[in-house]
Amino acid sequence: MSEIGSKRRILKLVFMINSDLRNGGGMERVLLNYIKYIPENFKNIYHITIVQTGLLEKERIKKDEIDTILKENNIVLITLDQYNKNLFDMKIGILNTVFNTLTETIRNRKYKHDIYKITSRADVVYLFHNSFSYFIPEGPIVIGSFHERNIDPRAYKGLSSILIKLTTILIKHKLLFRRIDYYHYIDNNYKSFVPKNSFYLPNGADIDRYIMKYHEREIDEIVRILFVGRLVKCKGLDVLIEAFRKINDKGKYELHIVGSGEMQAYIQNSKIKGLIYHGQVDDDELLRIYKKCDIFVFPSICDIMSLAVLEALASGEYVIVDKTLKGVFDDFEKLGILEYANHDPSDIASRILKFKKNFEQNKNVEELLKNYNWKEIVNKLYVIFQDVIIKII
């Protein structure tokens, strides 16, 4: 390779994700931010392609919005429409994931040529779905990640925990996803699960958009609790709703839920006084809800580093997250604005009851949040891309 920079040929970067960007979940939003906030000094260096699949659960981000981001940054979008649509459902939780991972090359073999053609001349291929690595030829640097799935055994029980622990051993010793050269992990707990040539970089948030001082919050007698995310069981919504039942007659409380998914009917049928379901909302309405609420509760066991938690922290909310995320948000815990709870309604309820409306944010919070600003995070990522390319020159 020749010199990197203005005198160097254009570098080819490919992002690969196993979903349609219109899903607008955390993973899709992370990828769009990797594009949206690409530093100006890198824009003329890279030719970027995104490869997505046709897996669409619900359109949370409009196609026009995505097209605008892609056009402004000269991004090529390629869709492998039927990729991974023929999944096996064994009705046994994590076994579905294991079996479908093992059979992925067979089920999607018709895409081998397409993926080979897209990636063979790339300099860097960044994977949101590590199993794509089975189809990538020798040549490009391949960076794997864990945006798609939590591989911390603490988040699972029984056989699932054993299988996930085995997965981490295979990854660490490069016996699984052997084509991956580096791993990007967003949870510091993962340091012991990945090969040595891996790097840590957290998720971010649009801090300037969400930042709010506590004295700006309207003070009244109602304590407003908030959940934002996909409405699926592993997010702990049933646990949160049961916790809300326990405190509902102990004061003036409201539970606000934002999102969509398979548990939508369950939430709508939970006839509980004070439970307010907003459905899927646009960014402006979400911002208003964040800044109206007091406590953000996130009892998820399937997330690694939720964007919503960072948004809630920036919006001035007190945050309670599941103990399986211990180690991820410890800096915020030290500042007294976040705590970890057991995956148990009684424990969550008791923590909510201790919350006081006159809670005052530590003055160091805003300074800490600057470390999670998307612009800063994305700049660091592209610097890492440059560093790994330099290593092979």
In short:
By secondary structure, this protein is of the alpha/beta class.
The fraction of residues in strands falls at 15-25%
CATH architect. name of the largest domain: 3-Layer(aba) Sandwich
Q: Fraction of residues in helices? A: 25-40%
Main sheet: strand order: 3-2-1-4-5-6-7
Largest sheet: 7 strands, parallel
List the quaternary state of the chains.
single chain
List the helices and strands and how they pair.
Elements (H helix, E strand, L loop, with lengths): L10 E6 L9 H11 L3 H4 L2 E8 L9 H10 L3 E5 L13 H9 L1 H4 L4 H8 L4 E4 L13 E5 L12 H15 L9 E4 L13 E2 L6 H4 L12 E6 L8 H11 L5 E6 L5 H5 L6 E5 L3 H10 L2 E4 L8 H8 L3 E5 L7 H5 L3 E4 L3 H10 L10 H5 L4 H17 L3
Parallel strand pairs: 1-2, 1-4, 2-3, 4-5, 5-6, 6-7, 8-9, 8-11, 9-10, 11-12, 12-13
Helix pairs in contact: 9-14
Question: Would you write up a description of this structure?
Answer:
It is a single chain. This protein is an alpha/beta fold and about 400 residues long. The protein has helices spanning about 25-35, 40-45, 65-70, 95-100, 105, 110-120, 160-170, 205-210, 235-245, 265-270, 285-290, 305-315, 330-335, 345-355, 365-370, 375-390; strands spanning about 10-15, 45-55, 75-80, 125, 140-145, 180-185, 200, 225-230, 255-260, 275-280, 295-300, 320, 340. Strands 3-2-1-4-5-6-7 form a 7-stranded parallel beta sheet, covered by helices on one side. The protein has a 6-stranded parallel beta sheet with strand order 10-9-8-11-12-13, with helices on both faces. The longest helix is centred in the last third of the chain and has 17 residues, at about 375-390. It is globular. The model is unreliable at about 1-5 (pLDDT under 50).
